[in-house]
Amino acid sequence: MTANVMGVECETSDLYLLAYLIHEGHRPIDVDTSDYRRFVWRFEPSEKVAALIEDYWQGGGRVNPATFAASIRAAKDLLFDTRRTMENKPYGEAKGEAGQRPLHGRQSTP
Known about the structure:
Blueprint: E1 10-12, H1 15-23, E2 30-35, E3 38-43, H2 47-58, H3 65-87, H4 91-97, E4 100-102
Antiparallel strand pairs: 1-3, 2-3, 2-4
């Protein structure tokens, strides 16, 4: 997981951090699917995203449980939609050889 905003995109493979950032109103800008078992979600670098990531890891983030549960479902939707998209590609591409993918299609909202 990276939280550097000095020209490096913020990224995570942690589903619950992904959900937390979605909950706080941030959407990933793309996803690295080069490892089919571990997707890396990238966010537009900003001090706000970096601060949220720091809060998450320090246990300082506070959320409404019901809306966070909806954000977890939205994060899972993104994960499984991406995986389903990959499964509909030719064999080599489905195994993750395509690498990064911009996010298209349905954007789940909590």
